[in-house]
Amino acid sequence: MYNPPDAAAPGTSRPRDAGFPLLEVRDLGKKYNSSRESIVAIESVSVNLAQGEFLSIVGPSGCGKSTLLKIIAGLSTATSGSIRLNGSEIVGPGPDRGFVFQGDALLPWRTIRQNVALGLEISGRDREAARVRTDEMLELVGLGEFGDRFPVELSGGMRQRANLARGLALDPPVLLMDEPFAALDAQTREIMQSELLKIWRQNKKSVIFITHQIDEAVFLSDRIVLMSARPGRIIGDFVVPIERPRSSAVRFSDEFRELNREIWEQLRDEVTRANDQSKVATVKGSQSTRRGQRTRRR
Fold first, then answer.
1. Are 96 and 172 in contact, with CB atoms under 8 Å apart?
2. Residue 258 burial (CB < 10 Å; 0-12/13-18/19+)?
3. In sequence order, what are the beta bridge partners of 224?
4. Alpha carbons 245 and 72: distance in angstroms, whole number
5. N or C: which end of the chain has fewer CB within 10 A?
6. How far apart are alpha carbons 194 and 236 in whole angstroms?
7. In the predicted model, what is the mean pLDDT of the chain?
8. Could you give the percent of the chain with pLDDT greater than 90?
């Protein structure tokens, strides 16, 4: 089992500073049960998030990264373990955690301004205060002139900016981001990464960012936590030593490339194992389908 440096217990990621962590995940587990089998998605996951820290979680497909994030958001329940935010246990969704989805998830019949204001409306915020806050968030993400447009009128990158503005609108201390740039082309993704860092420097939110891209994690993060193939466990914890603020030029530095290489070396075997698991699952699914077809013929 991985033992991070200076950890209090096996499997516990160290916070960036010695102060009281803002978010504490302890021995978290999630199991899915069906009539055919039980699948352990994540197991004994423990990680801390410090105030103002940008933490990325990287792991192979199917390792439980998004499952972990949804449990932290209160959108799913854990089978075991606990999560505490500012010392209080998380038992469901709340305005203290903003969530930025992989897809922009904007409502097509609402304008961009109305989409960004949605959480404020649901929370019962005063109408005038909500309008002011919405306009502030639109300006922050560079969409001040597009508030009255509909999602279909915006590019993918602009829609993701609106998605981010909606996540920030309630001013949550923790922002949870589930592969928000995965659907964008490579050039737009790189631009959005730089834009996100600019916004983060202004707000200094505590961020948990899910990604498959090692270079994206290195560019954005203070710290990077690695997860194993299923069942997902913490297997690595890297502090990113690259100074801030960061420009795109840092991607070509020896320090950046070396950290990329080091992380990939630790993750390579887990990616292979995850691919093997996927192949086995595909074979089982095909066999189950054929059995069902034979049963229907009888």
1. yes
2. exposed
3. 56, 238
4. 28
5. C
6. 25
7. 88
8. 76
DSSP letter for 12, please: B
**What are the tokens at 194?**
């730089």
Would you call 258 helix, strand, or coil by DSSP?
helix
Domains in the chain: ranges and CATH:
23-96+172-297 (3.40.50.300)
3-state SS, residue 199: helix
What value, to the nearest 5°, has the Cα angle with vertex 105 and ends 137 and 187? 75
Evaluate if pTM is beyond 0.90: no
CA end-to-end distance (rounded Å), the chain: 49
The DSSP call for residue 14 is P
Could you write out the DSSP letters of every residue in 133-184? HHHHHHHHTT-TT-TTS-GGGS-HHHHHHHHHHHHHHT--SEEEEESTTTTS
Q: From residue 45, give the alpha-carbon distance in Å to each of 42, 64, 78, 247, 297.
A: 7, 10, 11, 33, 45
Dihedral angle of Cα 96, 102, 108, 114, to the nearest 10 degrees? 30
Residues 6+ apart with CB under 8 A from 133: 117, 120, 125, 169, 171
Return d(Cα 166, Cα 146) in angstroms, integer: 14
127-140 and 156-169 helices, crossing angle to 10°: 140
| pLDDT tier, 40 (very low <50, low <70, confident <90, very high otherwise) | very high
Q: Which amino acid is at 47?
A: V
Chain segment 52-77, per-residue pLDDT in tens: 999 999 999 999 999 999 999 999 99
Q: Which residue has the tokens 């990680």?
A: 47
Sign of the torsion formed by the C-alpha atoms of 175, 179, 182 and 183: negative
Q: What average pLDDT does the segment 45-54 reach?
A: 96
Higher pLDDT, 37 or 231: 231
Sheet holding 23-33: strands in order across?
38-49, 23-33, 80-85, 88-89
